[in-house]
């Protein structure tokens, strides 16, 4: 019997910001704060350092199942730029570096606002998120602003636990806090590796939110094109077949 549903954050609950647009904003803000501190940096080198850091963090998540955390992002970039900041300077840069999303908040994905209230009446709900640059502390604020925070029984952000999907530990940790067995839970996400493969390794039912209707993921248990389809899915086939 299905008792809990866990959700990926980016491109599942929320639309991920346009990569280039958000990168430009972060680079601009990063440069401005460094300039205020008397530590100017070449924008080209900043972009290269950020892109290199993203690739490193992505690889670290996939190969080791661990998160370098937003602090790790900043330290990596500063090291690439050869900048050694004082403690107070570092704190100011970190605040600016990680809070860009609050000034340009992401939009809820289609069907999320309408679907969560219905699912929360029958199941325990949780989030399992690989955070990236924006820490879970700020992602919670975004969820509260959009009035979806109240529907979740537990939230797991990789920067807070250090594990990252597809590491089974982040799934197990979440389900332990929900007090449900892995076989009694389903996970939904758009990434066939971190979400589908991770959930399957954890013994959960894996629901793939297909980026495009024609896309296929042979490893998932179920495939949907919208979060709104979950209500019907969990009332029918998924409830009967879940291990």
Key phrases:
alpha/beta, Rossmann fold, 2 domains, 6-stranded parallel β-sheet, 6 strands
Written description of the protein model:
This protein is an alpha/beta fold and 243 residues long. It folds into two domains: 4-16 and 106-241, 3-Layer(aba) Sandwich (Rossmann fold), CATH 3.40.50; 19-103. Helices cover 51% and strands 11% of the residues. It has twelve helices and six strands. It has helices spanning 19-36, 43-64, 69-81, 87-98, 100-103, 112-120, 136-145, 158-161, 168-178, 192-201, 230-235, 237-241; strands at 4-7, 124-129, 154-157, 185-189, 205-209, 222-224. It has a six-stranded parallel beta sheet with strand order 3-2-1-4-5-6. Helix 7 links the parallel strand 2 and strand 3. Helix 1 crosses helix 2 (43-64), helix 1 packs antiparallel against helix 4 (87-98) and helix 2 packs across helix 3.
